[in-house]
Write the structure tokens for this entry.
Amino acid sequence: MRSRPPTVTVAAALLALLSVLFHLAFPLWANAVPRGGESVPAIVAFLAVAVGVAGLVGAAGLWMLRKWGIWLAIGVCLLSILDTASGVAGAPNAALRVVAAVTLVVFALVVVLVVLPASRRAFAASS
């Protein structure tokens, strides 16, 4: 049985948690943020859910130590970092800016955890 390093375990758990909380639940909480009477376009909600599903698949790939899981997780995290960077800059209040900044840091942490030498060795040994 292959041994999964703690860095990969934490990265997979964080990615799965963030995918559910921020992407899959996006249609539920998106209209709670004040936008001056505008609602969230449907395409934005669909894209958020698609990225959330991809994040869950990437987390599963990380958990199973699959090489494609690394690339999918990094791709989802980079898309999410770009998305939350706009929230850091343009959120309507300070509380939402802080939430966006913390989310950005956690997505960056997932990328760092996946590319650490211990994680790369585990993925190299599994292929």
Remarks:
- DSSP finds six helices and no strands in the chain.
- Helices lie at 6-24, 26-29, 42-63, 67-90, 94-115, 117-126.
